[in-house]
UniProtKB/TrEMBL annotation:
PANTHER family: AMINO ACID ABC TRANSPORTER, ATP-BINDING PROTEIN-RELATED, SPERMIDINE/PUTRESCINE IMPORT ATP-BINDING PROTEIN POTA. It comes from the Bacteria. This is Tungstate transport system ATP-binding protein. The keyword Plastid does not apply. InterPro entries: AAA+_ATPase, ABC_SmlMolc_Importer, ABC_transporter-like_ATP-bd, ABC_transporter-like_CS, P-loop_NTPase. The keyword Transport applies. Keywords: ATP-binding, Nucleotide-binding, Transport.
């Protein structure tokens, strides 16, 4: 549901979120509010807790403490059906490209003719128009990731979580995916994406969440965080120094 005040997809918020293993905090986020509009990019070094946070936001992991809320209500099954997630390595069904999309559209109970139209439009959107009948598992890495994103978009999500979707791709494949992400964002899909790529954050982010050692060390407008970071951790990360 759109939020009238923010013009985005409502507020996604975490409060007192904590995940522990063996008494050590892997994630410790007292408060974080993602109101949109525009893509939110989560940056930080390896092991900072970016994927854990993304998985918590999507309800894949239950925190030991705290909770995720959408528009003030604890994340529930209804919210989750309006979210989708794409991982670093896409897992595609052992069937054709078109059938991978049809699988998702059938879950939305769309009639055959509408599904056919939607599949064509989606394949065009992802530059996969000529590959409808090709086995999905024979696609190149970039094509496979585009199909994974199209499949997530076929769900009609309000929020799309992306966990390093371009980390294994070359610049041209990355550019195609970034265009898809920006178009989805312009259509009103809330994008929350993990990346290590500072250049990508510059190209895509409206706001940036900077993480280190399980904590959010800075959250703000992308230009602000990238050009004039307030935290030492952000400065070191953006300067390209070794962050431990
Ligand atoms: N199920 C688990 N059990 C124990 N520790 C875990 C578990 N899942 C994640 N961790 C630890 O939590 C920390 C954060 O992991 P996470 O995957 O969120 O980091 P990340 O910032 O996404 O790193 P990367 O950029 O390398 O993907 C890491 O030290 C990881 O080993």
């Amino acid at each position: 549901m759109r939020d009238a005040v923010t013009g985005a997809q409502g507020i996604l918020e975490v409060n007192n979120l904590r995940i522990e293993r063996d008494g050590k905090a892997l994630l410790d986020v007292p408060h974080l509010c993602l109101g949109g509009p525009g893509p939110t990019l989560i940056l930080g070094p390896n092991g900072a807790g970016k994927s854990l946070l993304l998985r918590c936001l999507h309800g894949l992991i239950h925190p030991d403490r705290g909770r995720v809320c959408q528009n003030g209500a604890a994340l529930n099954a209804g919210h989750k059906t309006r979210q989708a997630m794409v991982f670093q390595s896409p897992v595609l069904l052992r069937r054709s490209v078109a059938a991978n999309l049809d699988f998702v559209l059938k879950r939305r109970s769309l009639p055959h003719a509408e599904r056919k139209q939607r599949i064509e439009a989606l394949l065009d959107e992802g530059g996969l128009g000529g590959k409808a009948r090709q086995p999905a598992r024979s696609l190149s890495g970039g094509e496979a990731q585009r199909l994974a994103i199209l499949r997530a978009l076929a769900l009609g999500p309000e929020t799309l979580f992306l966990d390093e979707p371009t980390s294994a791709l070359d610049p041209s494949a990355t550019q195609m995916i970034e265009r898809m992400i920006l178009r989805a964002s312009e259509r009103g899909v809330r994008i929350v994406m993990v990346t290590h790529d500072i250049g990508q954050a510059r190209r895509l982010a409206s706001d940036i969440v900077m993480m280190q050692a399980g904590r959010v060390v800075e959250h703000g407008k992308a230009m602000q965080v990238l050009e004039a970071p307030e935290s030492n951790e952000s400065r070191r990360y953006l300067d390209g120094g070794l962050v431990t």
